[in-house]
Specification:
By secondary structure, the protein is α/β, with parallel strands linked by helices. About 40% of the residues lie in helices and about 15% in strands. It has helices at about 5, 50, 80-95, 105-115, 140-165, 175-185, 190-200, 235-245, 265-279, and strands spanning about 10-15, 20-25, 30-35, 55-60, 100-105, 120-130, 220-225, 250-255.
């Protein structure tokens, strides 16, 4: 791969908030979307295995996250707007032709919403750690997210980390790693006030109406599940439900007791590359 293609190339797109991202490599495009409170570095965690496998990899920070601008003038952080931003990235960095689209958590939901809006564009879909159960969030779930937003608003990053430690019931085997990853990713954001708003709005937004909508997705799909002991925020059974509903889906995950596959950038990237080769 030529050196200029191997090095990430920064880009900025968007008629609303400026969306910042980077592209690297050449070949069949893979666009990756991160989760709520994460950044573009958090999907495959810096791995370059996809580029080495012959892909042009496009990552970007969602509105209000990382380097990207907050929503303008009280604008929304809901899924319709997240998909609009993804469309702008695809238009700028992919152009015409088929590509692979994946994401983690909020990014998985955004990718699926895009697939439902543009079924003709995708060569394959990757849903990593989906957590939307197909119905509106309940009072207990919204209370958690609102509490997390309040902790960040009042006490900053350390308050955010402390809240997660108190409320997520993290298995002791993974606690130190989870809290360290959480602190590191939160320190990458330029606009913590925007993250506060996203924490309140994204859980109240529906990426699609219900799990029945998944049955219309016709492209090959890789669903990546995590066991609940390490990652209770992305329930294993939700990923299983997605894989059962999407006609051409395949479910993968780590072995019980292992670190979640979603946390292992190199291994996850190789799994995506293998999926792409066979899709």
């Amino acid at each position: 791969m030529p050196a200029d293609k191997a090095e990430p190339r920064a880009f900025t797109v968007g008629d609303g908030p400026a969306i910042h991202g980077e592209a690297a490599g050449e070949g069949t495009p893979v666009v990756l979307c991160h989760g709520l409170t994460a950044t573009r570095s958090s999907v495959v965690h810096g791995s370059r295995a996809l580029e080495r496998a012959g892909h042009a990899v496009v990552t970007y920070d969602a509105r209000g996250h990382g380097e990207s601008d907050p929503a303008r003038g009280g604008g929304s952080y809901g899924y319709p707007e997240l998909v609009d931003d993804l469309e702008a990235v695809v238009e700028s960095q992919v152009g015409e032709g088929h590509f692979l689209l994946g994401g983690h958590s909020m990014g998985a939901h955004t990718a699926i919403a895009y697939a439902l809006r543009h079924p003709e564009r995708l060569a394959g879909l990757i849903a990593i750690g989906p957590s939307y159960p197909g119905s509106a969030a309940g009072k207990e779930s919204l209370g958690y997210w609102d509490g997390l937003a309040g902790a960040l608003e009042r006490e900053g990053v350390e308050g955010f980390v402390t809240y997660i430690d108190r409320h997520q019931q993290i298995d002791l085997r993974w606690r130190d790693s989870v809290l360290r990853f959480t602190r590191e990713r939160m320190l990458r954001h330029r606009h913590l006030d925007a993250i506060v708003e996203a924490l309140r709005q994204v859980p109240r937004s529906k990426p699609f109406e219900g799990l029945g909508d998944l049955e219309s997705i016709e492209v090959p799909t890789l669903v990546v599940a995590s066991h609940d002991a390490a990652d209770p925020g992305h329930p294993y059974e939700v990923a299983v439900g997605y894989a059962e509903r999407i006609p051409r889906a395949r479910l993968i995950g780590e072995e019980p007791g292992e670190s979640p596959l979603a946390w292992q950038g190199g291994k996850l990237s190789r799994a995506i590359a293998a999926f792409a080769a066979g899709s």
